[in-house]
Amino acid sequence: MAKTAKPTKKVAAPAKKAGPAVSPLAPKTYASLPPLAGVRLATVAAGIRYAQRTDVLLAVMAAGTQVAGVFTKSKTASAPILWCRDKLKGGTARALVVNSGNANAFTGRVGLEGVQEIAESAAAIVGCRQQDVFMASTGVIGEPLPTKKITAVLSRLAEETAASGWRAAAEAIMTTDTFPKMATASAMIDGMKVTINGIAKGSGMIAPDMATMLAFVFTDANIPAAVLQECLNAGVGPSFNAITVDSDTSTSDTLLLFATGKGAKHGALNKAGDKRLTDFRRALDKLLLDLALMVVKDGEGAQKLIRIDVAGAESNEAAKRIALSIANSPLVKTAIAGSDANWGRVVMAVGKSGEAADRDKLSISFGGHVVAEKGMRAAKYNEATATKAVSGREVEIAVDLGLGKGAARVWTCDLTHGYIDINGSYRS
Amino acid sequence: MAKTAKPTKKVAAPAKKAGPAVSPLAPKTYASLPPLAGVRLATVAAGIRYAQRTDVLLAVMAAGTQVAGVFTKSKTASAPILWCRDKLKGGTARALVVNSGNANAFTGRVGLEGVQEIAESAAAIVGCRQQDVFMASTGVIGEPLPTKKITAVLSRLAEETAASGWRAAAEAIMTTDTFPKMATASAMIDGMKVTINGIAKGSGMIAPDMATMLAFVFTDANIPAAVLQECLNAGVGPSFNAITVDSDTSTSDTLLLFATGKGAKHGALNKAGDKRLTDFRRALDKLLLDLALMVVKDGEGAQKLIRIDVAGAESNEAAKRIALSIANSPLVKTAIAGSDANWGRVVMAVGKSGEAADRDKLSISFGGHVVAEKGMRAAKYNEATATKAVSGREVEIAVDLGLGKGAARVWTCDLTHGYIDINGSYRS
């Protein structure tokens, strides 16, 4: 399984913020994100939904910062998504305002007016154009956003921004997350080191359909918006678009990538295919995957991380649909939760995907142990081995359709009582 | 909500067979199914999977019985499905052999051989052609079917068949079902009364994709196979194909409809559109819906029946996809489980369906109380009223897209701890 980014410095895991116990899949230690030239951060507890919980983040970026983004494909996208999609056309950013506790989704005209107010306020305080203010909101859908609570704290936040606030930033955007999600990486461009820092939040309503949930990634590299967008589009497929917790797609999914250009003075980069970007893109892809996996590991109620590899499908697209059919099957997810090597449910999930499958060519393995092949239970099937393969914190399911060369990899978590506990009482 | 068929005679609800507590949505009394001319039934505990549980059903039908059927669309359909699909072409039936405890799915060549052995044995005992033997198996996937345990009991079963064994038949096909599912109806053809009896089993791996689960319906009317098939195809759309428990589609979904022609001597019926069939089709449609709703009411862990009506969509197909997106959303289902009027999750589920939706034209109501309209929370929204609407055993969610004339109705149940309990330990 992919490992999380090697931290530059180890620090103790922070205490949980609220809600259920910290996921057993949480990292034992967290990366200490280094300052990143051109980015300053501040957070505050503004009482958006709960008292004494940091819930507003302001990031201020240097003049000239370039921005790329991907957003939910939901037809009922939130007000901030509509704003960001439009402003992204300009390609530049100076401020990011994020709140947790309220998604400002399905809030009608009032929701759009709120976004406008925040943009006006932030622009005046930071000293930039409104179109350079980006926004995201996460939390309950359909409740009017208490806009004034946000605009009231922006001045103070702007005064308090610091280069060191990464962990606080990751904590401020949490909702039902049980641990903050952050990753850092470095890469070489023209022989000069650049840095990438990212934070994200999950942890229910997670199904990939462009970006999923909220993630904000910053680099001090100097990369034009169009090139940055190409890098992001390529990186999101095998990371945020390859994870699912519950098949539910958020109205607020936002992934923004900012490049301040205030780091090393490398040369101009005008094409995503430029070989001098190879190392940067590798580092970016890995960081996106690290963050995405943290989201799965903190899936509501998650006790196990499940990796699903599908090969031998008619196309990569078919492979991904089959992989997601398995990943989203409640019966597969509950079986894994119960450490039950119930591969029959994997057969079922392949069968219901609608994609071509030939029962007699299909093979399935758990943790490398072949459990089914040639249309039936494998001759060398061993119940103890199969059970062991689904009993740990990380479970690997591999399916080979035996039909073609299409392949895909997705990640999900198990479906447990914890999910029911959290989601049967979220609003109240 | 649709009511279950009015029983011809009320009898006490049977004690639960095994597993978790009887669903709170179970009928208080059961229809006592009358004898049906041309059908004799017998059941036995053959030890297919569990001891002392009836698990094999034999139904023997009169010579000349016509048959229609619909089956799962799964690409990994079970061995009995492959057999039935092929034999259905003949249009005639004399025997039905059903076992619970083992699905005979993904059992390879051995599974197909087992089906052949059962057909040979049943044909010899009943005195019919092999092609007139129909079969269904339900239970765990991937385990070799203990064929000999079935063939060993067929002679005895044939001797013991009786016209009165409907309740025992409904009980013999149960797996994780908490109550037997049966319904009866009568209709007039040419002024003469004909009878329809049906039994079904659920109760997980339920998502409509042609038929869902096992259901066997018998009538003493005299209707040719081709006409019967047309009636069945029309009836299955708004009944078995409009229910979902967990979005997982079984490899064994089978719905068979037998017409013995041994009842009233009505005239020949050569077209499904024949007006003399109107009353029969009405009764059949209602019986299919009754059975389908019992399956939802016994969905694994179900505490509430949820009806979802979508109107104003671009087409009926779009409406159904939106309705199923809501019905299959774990977040909607857990919210209802928690009596949380979280209509934002309905917005989310509409948004993720991929179908056209205009946030500002969408309206949502719970139990007739409008909770959202014009892109935001309804002006007259009342939290207490909304909460009351989702707090009972039956919940009604209505969505109007405001775009066109497409409409659909589907049913599902809530997602509770019971589902996790049952499915985290099914095989063991």
Structure report:
Two copies of one chain form a homodimer. Chain A is globular. In chain A, strand 13 and strand 14 form a beta hairpin. Chain A is α+β, with helices and mostly antiparallel strands. Helices cover 29% and strands 25% of the residues of chain A.
Whole-number count of domains of chain A: 2
Outline of chain A: globular
Overall average pLDDT of chain A: 88
Can you list the strand order of the major beta sheet of chain A? Answer: 15-14-13-16-12-17
Instruction: Give the name of the CATH architecture of the largest domain in chain A.
Output: 4-Layer Sandwich
Q: What's a quick, concise take on this entry?
A:
The structure is a homodimer of 428-residue chains. Chain A has helices at residues 79-87, 108-126, 147-160, 166-172, 225-236, 278-297, 316-327, 330-337, 343-352, 383-389, 417-423, and strands at residues 10-12, 29-31, 39-44, 56-61, 66-71, 95-102, 133-140, 181-189, 192-201, 214-219, 254-259, 305-313, 363-366, 369-373, 376-377, 394-400, 406-413. Chain A is of the alpha+beta class and 428 residues long.
Observed structural traits:
disordered N terminus, L-amino peptidase D-ALA esterase/amidase, Ubiquitin-like (UB roll), 11 helices, globular, homodimer, 2 domains, alpha+beta, 428 residues
Topology readout:
Two copies of one chain form a homodimer.
Chain A: E1 10-12, E2 29-31, E3 39-44, E4 56-61, E5 66-71, H1 79-87, E6 95-102, H2 108-126, E7 133-140, H3 147-160, H4 166-172, E8 181-189, E9 192-201, E10 214-219, H5 225-236, E11 254-259, H6 278-297, E12 305-313, H7 316-327, H8 330-337, H9 343-352, E13 363-366, E14 369-373, E15 376-377, H10 383-389, E16 394-400, E17 406-413, H11 417-423
Parallel strand pairs in A: 6-7, 10-11, 12-16
Antiparallel strand pairs in A: 1-2, 3-4, 4-6, 5-11, 8-9, 9-10, 12-17, 13-14, 13-16, 14-15
